[in-house]
Every structure is written in C-alpha cells, then in structure tokens.
Write a structure and sequence with these properties.
Blueprint: E1 4-7, E2 12-15, E3 31-36, H1 47-65, E4 69-74, H2 81-94, E5 102-106, E6 109-113, H3 121-138, H4 154-166, E7 170-172, E8 178-180, H5 182-187, E9 222-227, E10 237-239, E11 242-246, H6 248-260, E12 264-270, H7 274-287, E13 298-304, E14 307-309, H8 324-329, H9 334-341, E15 350-352, H10 354-378, H11 387-398, H12 403-422, H13 428-445, E16 474-475, H14 483-497, H15 501-513, E17 516-520, E18 525-529
Parallel strand pairs: 3-4, 3-12, 12-13, 14-15, 16-18
Antiparallel strand pairs: 1-2, 5-6, 7-8, 8-9, 9-11, 10-11, 17-18
Helix pairs in contact: 1-13, 4-6, 6-7, 9-10, 10-12, 10-13, 11-12, 14-15
The structure holds one RNA strand of 75 nucleotides.
RNA sequence: GGCGGGGUAGCCAAGUGGUAAGGCAGGGCUCUGCAAAAGCCUCAUCCGUCGGUUCGAUUCCGACCCUCGCCUCCA
C-alpha cells in the first residue's frame, strides 16, 4: 500500500504522489517540495506552535524514510503589525533618555543601544528568531533547508503584486495600499474557497471587520501591500508600489514560489491557517497565472489540529500557556515534549498535559531500558531490520501518519524483546536485528538518545576492586560517573558482603541525594541519573 | 447563524459490521538481604443518549445532548 495522506483540498485521505515524478535528485530519489508556514517572531513560540512544527518535521522525516528527497522550506515572518507595535513601544520608552547608552534584556539576549540609537526591527526579530531555532533544536526538529525571512524577499513580493495588478486581480486604494479582489479572481473562473466551505451569504464577516479596512471594495478582499502610515515608524520599503510594507499572506506565496517553483507538492500549517491565510495564498499564487496550465499552486495541503492544554484552550490567565522554556524550566526535556506531541494523530485535537509529560518520561524510560539492554547484548552492533516490525510500522505510518498505531507496534515489540531478554533467549543476532530496527524507526520519530541508550558498554567500565571475576559498575546514564559515586558503590558492595544491610541502604540513600539511582542487576550494580 | 472536528477504562489515545491497540496510573507477581524510575502478568461485557437498519453495531442511518475549532490576528 502506498503512503496515504489527508488532503484538505479534497477533504479525504489520498495516495501521496509527487507532483513531478520524473524529478530526481542525484541519488535517484524523487524530489518533493514542502512548505510549512513558520512563526511570526515577536515572542517565544508556545507549545501549540511547536505542535505544528514537530508535525511538519514528522512529515518530512517520514517522506525521507519513504525514500523521497524533500526540500523543506519554512518562512520567518519578521514584519507584521504586532512586531511593529512591540518595537515602537520599546522605542518610545527609550526615547525618554536618548543621550545615554541603553541596555535592556530582550528574550534571552541583552540589547545595547548607543546614544541616539533605537531598537531596529531586525534586531528585535533576531532575538525571537534565534530563540525559535533553539527551541526547534531542543525538540529535535531538523532545520528546514530554507528559512526565508519576509524582509529578504521584498522585491519578489512586489513583483508578484505587480503581476496581480497587471492581471486585474488587485487594485490600489487612495491611500496607496493594494488589495486582492476576490470578485475579479472568481470572475476569471477561479475558485475561492477550495480549502473551506464558504457560504458568503451566511458568513458573519461583516460583523467583525476591522475599522481600518474601510478602503476595501469588498470585505473579503485582503491586503497585499500596506501603504506606509506614521505608526510604522521607519518600517517601510520604498518600492515601485510606493512606500509601505507587504501584507501577511503575500510573503508565503512569494517565498514558496521563489524557492520551490510556482507549483509544488506539499504545504502545511496549523488548522487555523486554512482560512483565510492558505485560501488567500492559493488565490494570489494562482491568480498571478504563473503556473503551467493545469498545474495547481500546491498539490497537497495538510493542516495540523490545535492542542488543548490541561483540557482548555491555552490562555495566560488560566496558567496553561506554555512556551518550550516554561516546560524545560519545570524540568521536562525536549525529547519528552517531542514524544508527547508525537503520540497523537496530527488531525486530532490533542490534550497536552503535565501529567502526560510525566507519562512520556516513564514510557521513554521503558524504551531506553530495552534499547540499553540490546546495546549490551549486541555490543552496539546492528545488522538488518526485523521485516515484520518494519512492515507493521510502515503500514501504520502510511495510513495518514497514524503515530498512535505505530507506537503500539513499537511497544508491543519492546514487550516481546523484554520477554526474550528476561528468559535469556535473546541471541546476539536477535539483538543486532532489533537495534537495526530501532535505528530505522528512530530516524522517523527522532527521539533523541536517552540515558541507557548512550550507556557505555562493557569496555572501559570500572569494576569493583578485588572481585573475581571482576564485577563491573554499569553506567546507565549518559554522563561519566563521578569518583565519589564510584567510591560509594564500592563501599556499598563491601557492606552488602559483610551483610551490613543497614549501611548498604544508607549508602543507597546517599547516592540518591547525589542524584544517582543504583540498581542491583545480575551483571553488577547499575547506576542511573536521577 | 454558516461550516468542520470530537465524545472509547482513573487519565492520554488507536480501532473495527462479528464482539475493544498502545502508553500512564492502579492491582498482582518475579528477581532481590531489601529495593528499583528492572521485568512479567492483570486491568472497558463495553465505546455520549435515545431510536432505526442488521443474524449481529462501539463501528451504518436518524434525532438529541455535550464539547472543541474556523468564519477576525492566531500553529
């Protein structure tokens, strides 16, 4: 069965076929162009944003697993109303004392401004775009191949708008802004409302139209170019369209087509982006008439559902608004967050909870423990994958990325391995096969190595003095064991041998205060980091 | 008001016209001097409610209840 993915355009799960099957990379792999709407960098991203980015990462990794060469593009929106407002607020605070050097913290960074200098849009957005990159890394998301910033694509944006104006799809208003005309677009036989069912008569769109959009001919029309206004400060570009800045939707059209061509395979984003953002992207991109005849702007649209936090919509007042660093501050790791985000189907609203994160930690420990034992048995070697497990895994993932089913396959497999390990029937060869299997699967979920996964095996391990045969102290953590801890383990061994169990238990308590757990295994004491 | 998702064990979450995956928590057990964040076993007569179709429905149809989202910046 081929890979099947839900396509918002058809509202159904359909086989995934590259738009240009004949395009291959040097290695002979079919190429896939994939664009995912990225962050607006005015603050830290929250866990909901990252659900979408982890989802995009999963799509990319699974396509790669399936043998495609993916080019992954994600935009960084670095000019936008909220950004401009934040920069301007900051600058009006600074303006009170323009004669001296100003220093203030911004996000994770410290900004220093010389006398007379103001915070620039670029400096401001770089702080949060850097933070975004760090969060992506923490969640083990592969960096997209291209991370275009809107401000670097002004010429392409302007060119696209001019094309739309030339084709009569867009009009200039008296203030100098340019709007896209949905009526003209539909008049050319194009369909507006491909991603959502729109009933223009029943829409309550008139009720909540922002008051500053009075220049539009029709309420559904949207801004391509916003003419410069005083509040923009020095955030404007001098272009053939006049002074101003791009609207929001147009940057994605301009950048995606600049990097992936006028027609490409996949476009992803959060479910809220389907309308109006993605709908408008289609209108702009196809309205410009740059595709070859019969080709769509995007073949396959995918949308990730939102998440709830502790059963509620995230909100600061409810205290359930989490950024990635809020969670790491609470002691959770990137892999735990990633695992939890990858535990539910992407089109299902997911309830993200702290208890779920705790559960993720335990589940991951079970996985780590199993892989660690396999490493010990196979001495880290791996051969070929277990075809039965790989087939079950692939068939689950082929079914519109059914990660829940895929994890069930993995945990069933872990249980059966544990049974064999416990009964001493797992051969070195079995372990090598199992490790190869995990190696493949892990490339998709990319759950970073846990403690025992990286554990030092056999060679180099220190042994308890004067034991014959030597009893090794097993390191089940991913950091070196301190000398102090080694000494305590040796003392505990001596106490146990002398049947001074009170002393042995006391030492276990001491180790715990030092952050180490000791488990007595058949091979020797095993240390894990608390 | 229009459109679109959901409601499955204490919690999270798959799934099927033929009698309920997986994870966490809970319970039991094993190894152990004792332990373990070690391992194994166990844990829903039942899938929002009420009707209907069917030999048989949690799965199909209808109604209703509840809930979330989009229609406006938003992952």
């Amino acid at each position: 069965m081929p890979l099947q993915l839900y396509n918002t355009l058809t509202r159904s799960v359909v086989p995934f076929e590259p738009l240009f099957p004949e395009n291959r990379d040097p290695a002979g792999k079919q190429t896939v162009g994939m664009y995912c709407c990225g962050p607006t960098v005015y603050d830290y991203g929250h866990i909901g944003n990252f659900r979408t980015f982890v989802f995009a990462d999963l799509v990319r990794r699974y396509l790669e697993f399936r043998g495609y060469a993916v080019r992954h593009v994600m935009n960084i929106t670095d000019v936008e109303d909220k950004i401009i407002r934040k920069v301007s607020d900051r600058n009006s605070a600074i303006a009170h004392n323009p004669a001296s050097t100003t220093t203030f913290p911004l996000g994770d960074e410290v900004v220093t401004l010389l006398p007379g200098q103001f915070l620039s849009l670029e400096r401001f957005t770089s702080v949060f775009s850097n933070a975004f990159m760090r969060d992506l890394d923490l969640l083990a998301c592969q960096r997209p191949h291209d991370l275009p910033k809107a401000t670097d694509y002004i010429p392409q944006i302007v060119a696209l708008i001019e094309k739309l104006v030339a084709r009569g799809m867009a009009y200039k208003t008296p203030d100098g802004s340019v709007y896209f005309s949905i009526e003209k677009y539909r008049g050319c036989g194009c369909k507006y409302g491909q991603l959502v069912n729109l009933n223009f008569d029943a829409m309550r769109v008139g009720e909540r139209v922002a008051s500053d959009e009075y220049d539009k001919e029709s309420v559904a029309d949207f801004a391509l170019w916003k003419a410069r206004v005083p509040e923009d400060g020095d955030v404007f570009w001098e272009t053939q369209l006049g002074e101003g800045r791009p609207g929001w939707h147009i940057e994605c059209s301009a950048m995606s087509m600049a990097l992936l061509g006028p027609s490409f395979d996949l476009h992803l984003g959060g479910e809220d982006l389907a309308f109006p953002h993605h709908e408008d992207e289609i209108a702009q991109s196809e309205g410009a008439g740059v595709q070859n005849s019969g080709q769509p702007f995007v073949k396959h649209w995918m949308h990730g559902s939102h998440l709830l936090v502790e059963g509620k919509k995230m909100s600061k007042s409810l205290g359930n608004y989490f950024t990635v660093r809020d969670l790491t501050t609470k002691g959770y790791t990137g892999r735990e967050i990633r695992f939890l985000l990858l535990s539910a189907h992407y089109r299902e609203t997911f309830n993200f909870t702290l208890a779920g994160l705790d559960g993720a930690r335990t589940a991951l420990a079970r996985l780590d423990e199993c892989i660690g034992k396999l490493q010990e048995i196979a001495k880290g070697r791996h051969t070929i994958e277990d075809s039965v497990v790989m087939e079950s895994f692939t068939s689950a993932m082929d079914d519109d990325l059914n990660v829940a089913r895929a994890w069930a396959v993995i945990f069933d497999w872990v249980r059966s391995l544990n049974r064999s390990i416990a009964s001493n029937t797992l051969t070195v060869g079995d372990a090598e096969v199992a490790l190869a299997t995990w190696h493949r699967i892990r490339a998709v979920f990319e759950i970073p190595a846990g403690q025992t996964d990286l554990a030092a095996i056999a060679g180099g391990t220190r042994c308890i003095p004067d034991t014959n045969p030597p009893i090794p102290v097993l390191n089940g953590s991913n950091e070196p064991i301190p000398e102090e801890v080694y000494q305590l383990v040796f003392q505990r061994y001596a106490a146990k041998k002398a049947k001074d169990f009170a002393r042995a238990d006391a030492i276990r308590g001491e180790l715990k205060t030092l952050g180490w757990i000791v488990e007595d295994t058949a091979k020797g004491p095993k240390l894990k980091r608390l």
